[in-house]
Specification:
Low-confidence stretches: none
Radius of gyration: 33 Å
Protein name: Phosphate acetyltransferase
Main location: cytoplasm
Largest sheet: 7 strands, parallel
Distance between the termini: 31 Å
Pathway: Metabolic intermediate biosynthesis; acetyl-CoA biosynthesis; acetyl-CoA from acetate: step 2/2
Function: Involved in acetate metabolism.
Strand content: 15-25%
Subcellular location: Cytoplasm
Length: 696
């Protein structure tokens, strides 16, 4: 079964609670471990969100209230104003992943469209669902009297999620008038694909009308009498300012009376009307102005056998009446009548079996950059590895090491002189806790002579003598690589100062390649706006043969799978399918056939052009029967010239984050950096290296 579903409303007061309650009951019938998360709440942190309390309490969920939300609306607005909306998404992902490890399924509830975050939350709901990688169930609120307006508004919110690359599993239109129910259902099925589960739910007076208890909560009222009737529904209200005989003319069923606390005639008349067979039921009485009846009246009321709730508020009559008018119906944990009514409506009008089947069959189609980066950090932290950074004197390396040590992601070793590194860090203003970082000076290290002798034994057949070995081991790239070879660290990241060849040569000399691998290659993880793609080879092999290209494709597909990306391999060329001719396209065609023979389990297409590989529209016209075209996740370039220029063009023109290059094919992870790398590049490459080491 899919791990989660996101419930999103189109407007405030859409009746989201009905669906949340119904889905929770449905899910608990399928699995016992269901989590609940409402990322953004509209109340202040010192108050509790009633809906979270209702869900946790009614279903007796094993969830602490504080774990069921992440931000308040005010906090989100503050983050947005500071340009830190990305931090909001990152923190929500972290809390979601924490729940994901504990529960079989998570019900994620979107925002309420009330309070401080209203202006940004439509877009935010899309971003949250997309970055969590979960499908959405949309609840649209019916427009009064107009089916056309309802359908137009519903199509708008549906398109918003679809255009944001979020899969929509179901669309429910709520609060539909009974006369428009069938028409709305028919029109709704015509604006979305048949694969989307649709239904219309009728308006319910019982659920849409507030109760006296909600008046108590919202108006901070004192309950003087009739506490047992707080769940009485309110269908209408009126101010008792005129004489009793005129006031009684306005009574309807479940009527709430608002009157000054010194109007004993209205109070007693309302209580008498409630007991009379000739008048409708009174829901309750609200006494205004902080005034309370005299002792004799209170004694009279206390002696009555049938007392409706009588509340006292400090606000004046006009203000109180306005406040009552603004109270929205809610479902509280103690109101079991409303909860049970919600569940009955959900089961009656929502096609639960069809919806369950959609949840079971749903598969995430891709991974967003933020989710990819979170998964990387999370995996690295769970199984910490040791990574050496030979170029310790570079300011960027120092800053990245400080970040890694602070976050406790990997155990970092820097090569260099400790005192020199301390002075440099102080000079450039980098705060490093050297107690958390190991620093080794190669020439003065206790390992130096052992490394010299080991290198001599490994390379003496190549004419290396002991003096040459000693001189070589003073080179930080060789010393760092030997640390990997000896198992003192799990991987190495270099290249901020040294060339690619200077980084790779030592690895090829004594770490060597894996069995059945003849070529070391590289991939970049290209984190674009809506997806993460794997690009290979963009850094190592200038003009690979067909056999080498096939090997690069297989290695890249395995790397993608190792990092949680489903490999769908596109072997890129200047033509798609069988149309192109020439040596270059023939090479790609041959490489594709080799991969199919060696790894029939892989989804692969080639030769194929870049646009046909990633654009569903182009793929539909050029290669309509391909299971890779339009949705490729691993893109293999025919040569280094094409690959290197393409990744850099996409990086610069679109703002995509390029993580890498990550080297493939070595027995132990050694990764190269660009000499123009940033601190973030180093940080990300170290994390990739640590994850590679976990697989050995």
């Amino acid at each position: 079964m899919s791990k989660a579903i996101y419930i999103a409303a189109s407007h405030s007061n859409s009746g989201k609670s009905i669906v949340t309650l119904g889905l929770m009951r449905l899910l608990l019938g399928k699995t016992t471990k269901v989590g609940y998360l409402k990322p953004i709440i509209t109340v202040a942190k010192n108050k509790k969100d009633f809906h979270i309390e209702t869900i946790i309490s009614h279903f007796d969920l094993d969830i602490d209230y504080q774990d069921a939300f992440v931000f308040t609306g005010k906090e989100v607005i503050a983050k947005r104003n500071q340009g830190k909306i990305g931090d909001v998404i990152d923190t929500i992902i972290k809390q979601y992943k924490k729940m994901e490890s504990k529960y079989d399924f998570i019900l994620v509830e979107g925002t309420d469209f009330e309070g401080d975050a209203t202006s940004v939350e439509a877009e935010l709901n899309v971003d949250i669902a997309k970055n969590l990688g979960i499908p959405v169930l949309i609840i649209s609120k019916a427009s009064k009297g107009s089916v056309d307006n309802t359908i137009e508004n519903t199509k708008l919110i549906y398109d918003t999620f679809q255009n944001g690359d979020v899969e929509v599993l179901s669309v429910i239109v709520n609060k539909v008038s009974k006369e428009n129910l069938n028409k709305t259902e028919k029109r709704l099925s015509g604006i979305v694909p048949k694969s989307v589960v649709t239904c219309a739910v009728p308006f319910s007076n019982k659920l849409s009308n507030p109760t006296v208890a909600e008046i108590v909560r919202e108006l901070d009222a004192e309950v003087m009498f009739g506490a047992s009737g707080l769940n009485n529904p309110i269908s209408a209200y009126g101010v008792g300012a005129m004489q009793l005989r005129n006031h009684l003319e306005h009574y309807v069923e479940d009527y709430l009376v608002v009157t000054p606390g010194d109007r004993a005639d209205i109070i007693l008349g309302s209580l008498q009307a409630n007991s009379s067979k000739n008048y409708p039921k009174v829901a309750g009485i609200v006494l205004t102005g902080g005034l309370k009846p005299e002792a004799t009246i209170l004694r009279l009321i206390d002696g009555l056998s049938d007392i409706v709730p009588i509340l006292s508020v400090k606000t004046g009559t006009f203000e109180t009446a306005t406040n009552v008018a603004n109270v929205q119906a809610q479902i509280y944990s103690e109101n079991t009548d409303k909860i049970l009514a919600s569940l009955r409506i959900f089961n009656k009008y929502v096609p639960t079996e069809e919806l369950t089947n959609k949840l079971i069959k749903f598969e995430t189609k891709g991974m967003t950059p933020k989710m990819f980066q979170y998964n990387m950090v999370d995996r690295a932290q769970k199984h910490k590895k040791k990574v050496v950074l030979p170029e310790g004197n570079d300011p960027r390396v120092l800053e990245a090491a400080a970040m890694l040590a602070t976050l406790n992601i990997v155990d970092v070793t820097l090569l260099g002189d400790l005192e020199e590194l301390k002075l440099k860090a102080e000079k450039i203003g980098i705060a490093i806790n050297f107690d958390k970082i190991k620093v080794i000076n190669p020439a003065k290290s206790e390992y130096f002579e052992d490394f010299v002798n080991t290198f001599y034994e490994l390379r003496k057949h190549k004419g290396v003598n002991i003096d040459m070995a000693r001189d070589t081991m003073t080179d930080v790239s060789y010393f760092g690589t030997m640390m990997v070879h000896k198992g003192l660290v799990d991987g190495m990241v270099s290249g901020a100062v040294n060339t690619t060849q200077h980084t790779i040569r030592p690895a090829l000399q004594f770490i060597k390649t894996k069995p059945n691998v003849s070529v070391v290659s590289s991939v970049f993880f290209m984190c674009m706006e809506n997806r993460v793609s794997v690009f290979g080879d963009c850094a190592i092999n200038p003009d690979p043969t067909a056999e080498q290209l096939a090997e690069i494709a297989i290695s890249s597909a395995d790397s993608a799978a190792n990092f949680g990306i489903e490999p769908r391999v596109a072997m890129l060329s200047y033509s798609s399918g069988s149309s192109g001719k020439g040596a270059q396209v023939d090479k790609v065609r041959t490489a594709t056939e080799i991969v199919k023979a060696k790894r029939p389990d892989l989804k692969i297409e080639g030769p194929i052009q870049y646009d046909a590989a990633v654009d569903p529209g182009v793929a539909k016209s050029k290669m309509p029967d391909s299971e890779v075209a339009g949705k490729a996740t691993v893109l293999i370039f025919p040569d280094l010239n094409t690959g290197n220029n393409t990744y850099k063009a996409i990086q610069r023109e679109t703002g995509a984050l390029a993580i890498g290059p990550m080297l493939q094919g070595l027995n132990k992870p050694v990764n190269d950096l660009s000499r123009g790398c940033t601190v973030d590049d180093i940080f990300n490459t170290v994390i990739i290296t640590a994850i590679q080491a976990q697989e050995l």
